[in-house]
Design brief:
This protein is of the alpha/beta class. It has a single domain, classed as 3-Layer(aba) Sandwich (Rossmann fold). It has eight helices and eight strands; from the N terminus they run βαβαβαβββααβαβαα. Strands 3-2-1-6-7-8 form a six-stranded parallel β-sheet, with helices on both faces. Strand 1, helix 1 and strand 2 form a beta-alpha-beta unit. The longest helix has 17 residues. It is globular and about 55 Å long. It starts with 30 loop residues before the first strand and ends in a 32-residue tail after the last helix.
Length: 276
């Protein structure tokens, strides 16, 4: 049965979406892995979706992890970022984008909160739901806890290595307890950033883009404002949703942004640099 995820739901109606979370692995030597992508997703693009596949391939061939599920977690309206349409629309667009997926889900929990939630709190939420409430997954030798890991773009590591952007305790908590799968982008050199984060190097997995893709949510919004086609850049059903609700129009009447405020420290913009 599909999970009931709607943009207009409330926290009182919320139930953790677990129907696409695989509950058993056959190789007892592997560690089950769940990938979490936190971001604006305003709107979600094909690049966001492709990064899940890239991370799953990387984990399969280069680590001892076995991916058993993945989640998109939209930031709430309190994020106050330019170009951010209301959480209701972003949840709905993400749900449409993954409606045919057998393993990628949308968790609206973060976006349903009226207050801003730090990334560490969001990851704690997944840890609790998957490993405590659902007690991990079954293996031939008994149950195993899932590794919860952040899926992000090179911009995450760059901001973490920049003094004053993230609190040191948050970096230590996120990278130390959960870790991150990082997707490189063309024109982005993250070697210096990674050198700054050497103490967590065993919990940072860097994925090279073998086929470069520079699709970004920022560009999608620009194309939309200029009345240019955004088809083939985002899933067809998401394009229809954007047009039906007149999102990202020229005058910005559907925007939830506050242009006078900057980004909140410690927030992740999405799973790709300039992706939101």
């Amino acid at each position: 049965m599909a999970d009931d995820v709607r943009g207009d739901m409330t926290l009182d109606e919320y139930e953790f979406p677990a129907s696409r979370l695989r509950r058993r692995i056959e190789d007892s030597e592997r560690t089950p892995l769940v990938l979490i992508a936190c971001g604006s997703f305003s709107p979600i693009t094909f690049l966001h979706l492709r990064m899940f596949e890239m991370a799953a391939d990387y984990a399969r061939f280069n680590t001892n992890f076995e991916v058993v599920g993945a989640y998109l977690s939209c930031v709430g309206d309190a994020y106050k970022k330019t170009g951010l349409v209301k959480a209701e629309h972003r949840i709905n667009m993400c749900s449409l984008a993954v409606q045919q997926s057998s393993w990628i889900s949308v968790d609206p929990w973060e976006a349903l909160h009226s207050e801003y939630l730090e990334t560490a709190k969001v990851l704690d939420h997944f840890e609790h739901e998957i490993n405590e409430v659902h007690n991990g997954v079954e293996t031939p030798v008994g149950r195993k806890k899932c590794r919860i890991a952040l899926l992000a773009g090179a911009d995450l590591i760059q901001t973490m290595s920049t003094p004053g952007v993230w609190a040191a305790k948050d970096i230590d908590y996120i990278l130390g307890k959960f870790g991150a799968f990082i997707v490189e982008r063309s024109g982005t050199d993250i070697d210096e950033a990674l050198a700054t984060l050497q103490q967590w190097k065993d919990n940072i997995w860097v994925i090279q883009q073998l086929v470069q893709n520079d699709i970004s949510s920022t560009k999608i919004r620009l194309f939309r404002r200029r009345d240019m086609s955004i088809r083939y850049l985002v899933p067809e059903q998401v394009v229809d949703y954007i047009e039906d609700h007149n999102l990202y129009d020229e005058d910005g009447t559907n925007s939830n942004s506050d242009k006078g405020k900057g980004k909140k420290a410690g927030a992740t913009d999405g799973i790709a640099s300039s992706s939101n």
